[in-house]
Design a protein that fits this description.
Elements lengths: L19 E7 L3 H12 L3 E7 L3 H9 L5 E3 L11 E4 L6 H8 L8 E4 L5 H7 L4 E3 L1 E3 L20 E4 L7 H13 L3 E4 L2 H27 L4 H7 L2 H7 L6 H10 L1 H20 L4 H16 L13 E8 L4 H11 L6 E8 L2 E7 L3 H13 L4 E5 L3
Parallel strand pairs: 1-2, 1-4, 2-3, 4-5, 5-6, 8-9
Antiparallel strand pairs: 7-8, 10-12, 10-13, 11-12
Helix pairs in contact: 6-10
Length: about 375
């Protein structure tokens, strides 16, 4: 009598299928590196290649587990790319894309993380399967050494498709963005530029102007001594990369000029209310209501220092199996976060009290057949 058993039993530890095969980071700085870490830690790409002009940056990215392979120049190797993320300075994005274009296969999807969209979208949409993008995330700290996947978690990620944007390319980029833990929204490229001029680019210029007021004053040393929390908070963005910030505002110069003029008029109007305390109070109360209504962006659920991220198939009993394995090894889990379940599974992030527990947990989970990646200093 024939056996009723299935020919092949399913593997309970099968790794979730990646969303792309090979992803290329064209520029491996703070944002590019953070995207790369997200792709790696959430098992979204089978392979991540870093493309950067600086070999030291690429060495650091490889050492941090951001990339699997490093490239210094465009070439035939790009034919293997399924997704390209342009993460170079804003003024070089179009040139970089065109340098890579002859080597890309027709099906490759290209996106960017630049903070000015209209010119880039207009230049590249007809030449590539391009989807404009801008994660509203960042830090005054710059460079790949400060890359952190949690920087993108819960961030608003603006996508700027047009009528000419490839629908399948847009769908893929949106899936990647959501899988990285961000919130994808679609905005017209020109509207995006006008909006970020107000909430990002003019605030940067304002921070530069305020620091110049201090630097150029005769009482500079005393002003530096008196500069407290309010001044530091208002000028924090001036501590970022001057070159990258310069490129950011120059790339959006028309919208920035308009927003700067409106800001100047608003500041003058407030100064004119100094002789009318009640009118100034009304303006201050309006400002407080607006500021207090800003959404609170919560990044990672857990601190990144002692974390392990594992690939988990979408099958019943996996969480119980994982916690049982750790419990049997007397490794205490402090917190758990599900990073997202795709069609074939997702990822689970576990947090531990100590570095030793983090390392022991990784060893236990690997022995149980899971692919485990350590975040932070655990190695």
């Amino acid at each position: 009598m024939a056996s009723a058993l299935p020919a092949t039993a399913p593997d309970p530890n099968a790794r979730p299928a990646p969303l792309v095969g090979t992803a290329v980071l064209a520029g491996v700085g703070l944002i590019g590196g953070s995207v790369g870490l997200g792709l790696q830690q959430r098992f979204l790409a089978r392979r991540v290649v870093g493309f950067d002009l600086d070999p030291e940056v690429l060495d650091a990215a490889r050492g941090l587990g951001i990339i699997d392979e490093a490239r210094l120049r465009a070439g035939p190797w790009l034919a293997e790319a399924d997704l390209v993320v342009l993460a170079a300075p804003a003024r070089s994005l179009v040139r970089l894309a065109r340098e890579m274009a002859p080597f890309l296969r027709p099906g490759c999807v290209v996106t960017d993380v630049g903070s000015a969209k209209a010119d880039v979208v207009a230049a590249l949409t007809g030449e590539l399967r391009f989807v404009g993008g801008h994660p509203m995330a960042g830090s005054e700290r710059v460079g790949v050494l400060h890359a952190d996947a949690s920087l993108l978690e819960n961030a608003v990620w603006v996508l700027t498709p047009t009528a000419a944007t490839d629908a399948q390319a847009l769908a893929l980029v949106k899936r990647i963005v959501v899988a990285l833990g961000a919130h994808a929204i679609e905005v017209d490229p020109g509207l995006h530029d006008r909006l970020v001029a107000t909430v990002s680019h003019v605030p940067y210029l304002a921070a530069v102007a305020l620091t110049h007021l201090v630097a150029e004053a005769e009482e500079r040393e005393l002003l530096m001594l008196l500069a407290a929390g309010g001044f530091r908070d208002l000028t924090r963005v001036a501590s970022g990369s001057p070159r990258m910030s310069r490129d950011m505002v120059v790339a959006n110069r028309a919208a920035v000029r308009d927003a700067a003029a409106r800001f100047g008029r608003a500041l003058t109007a407030l100064a004119e209310r100094l002789d009318d305390p009640e009118a100034l109070l009304d303006a201050a109360e309006d400002a407080k209501r607006t500021r207090d209504a800003l959404p609170v962006v919560r990044r990672s659920l857990m601190p990144s220092r002692f974390e392990v991220v594992i690939a988990v198939p979408d099958r019943p009993g996996q969480l119980a199996r994982i916690t049982a394995a750790l419990g049997d090894a007397e490794v205490n889990v402090k917190d758990i976060e599900v990073l997202g379940i795709r069609e074939a599974g997702g990822a689970l992030r576990l947090a531990f009290e100590t570095l030793d527990e983090q390392r022991r947990a990784a060893d236990v989970l690997r022995a149980a057949g899971y692919e485990a990646r350590v975040r932070g200093n655990g190695g």
